[in-house]
Amino acid sequence: MWSPAPLCALGRRRPGPSAPLQPLTRLLRGEYRDRTSPIRLLRGEYRDRTSPIRLLRGEYRDRTSPIRLLRGEYRDRAPIRLLHGEYRDRRTPIRLLHGEYQELPLPGQGWGRTQPLPPRRFLSNKPKSRRHPKTFPVLDGSVPAVYQHAFKENLRNSEAVIKRYSALLEEVKKGGGENAVLRHTRRNKKLFVRERLRLLLDHEDFLELSPLAGLHMPYGDVPAAGCLTGIGRICGIWCVFIASDATVKGGTIYPIGVKKQLRAQEIAMENRLLSVHLVDSGGAFLPLQSELFPDKLHGGRIFYNEAIMCAMGIPQVAVVCGSCVAGGAYIPTMAEESVIIDKIGTLFLAGPPLVKAATGEDVSPEDLGGARLHSQVSGCSDHFAPSEEEAYVCIRNVVSTLNCHPVPEEDREPDSPLYSPEELLGLAPQDYSCTLPVKLILSRLVDGSRFQEFKAAYGTTLVTGFGHVEGHLVGIVANNGELAHDAALKGSHFVQLCGQRGIPILFLQNTAPQPAGPASISQAEAHSNRLKAQASMMAAVACAAVPKITIVIGGCFGSDSYVMCGRSFSPNFLFLWPNARVALVDSRHFPTVPPAGDWTGGELELQQLKAKLEEESSAFYSSSRLWDDGIILPQDTRKVIAQCLDIMEQKKFQAVSPHPHPIIRM
Question: Per residue in 82-94, pLDDT tens?
Answer without folding.
Answer: 444 444 444 444 4
